Amino acid sequence: MTGPQAKTCATCGRVIVAHAVYYRFSLVLEGEQDLLDPSDDLEGSPAEALAEMVRRLDEGSADPGELEAQVHWERTGVVCSECRAVAMRMLNTATGDSGPH
Predict the structure, then answer these.
(1) How big is the CA angle at 1 (ends 12 and 76), to the nearest 5 degrees?
(2) Do the beta carbons of residue 14 and residue 8 sit within 8 Å?
(3) 27 and 74 in contact (C-beta within 8 Å)?
(4) Which helix (H) or strand (E) holds 7?
């Protein structure tokens, strides 16, 4: 009979031994946009504007997988104590608009 297996930190790659504390995470990033850009020169009703946007996407050369990844991305895994501390500091910063990175 074997015991718990060692895990690998999803951030730093460190092996987390079976008896060490680790942290499970689930991260989902979903793109949102509240308003269409009025400078897009889309005239007519909202339905016509949406139809025009779909037409542009259909005719474009963008990879559908890349477009999907821009809208929805998720990851789950485990992290070690050190990486948890870094993530907590990063995610606990002021929630106001702090500008570009």
Answers:
(1) 30
(2) yes
(3) yes
(4) strand 7-8
